[in-house]
Write a structure and sequence with these properties.
Elements lengths: L7 H60 L1 H8 L1 H19 L3
Amino acid sequence: MENVKQTPSSNNTDELLSKKAQHALHDSVDTVAEKAAKAEQAIRDKAHRSAEAINETQDKLKKQWAGSAVGRFAVENPVATVGIAFAAGMLITSLFRKR
């Protein structure tokens, strides 16, 4: 290989190109970081809204269950409820069992 001697002007050009590349890379990293932060915040907001909606639905369903005749029966007669569930499971199993 040949020895290439750099002159001061070519050395300055290399430094300028290096600084420009470095600046461009920093700008790119900053842009990606900003977009990632915005995306993260949007996901967090959506998760928070979803959690609130789920809690509201859960509360609504609990109130419906507590007010229903089936819910009252299940609370007042837990042993009978288990027996009915067991019998229903056995019936469904016998209907779908392969012969």
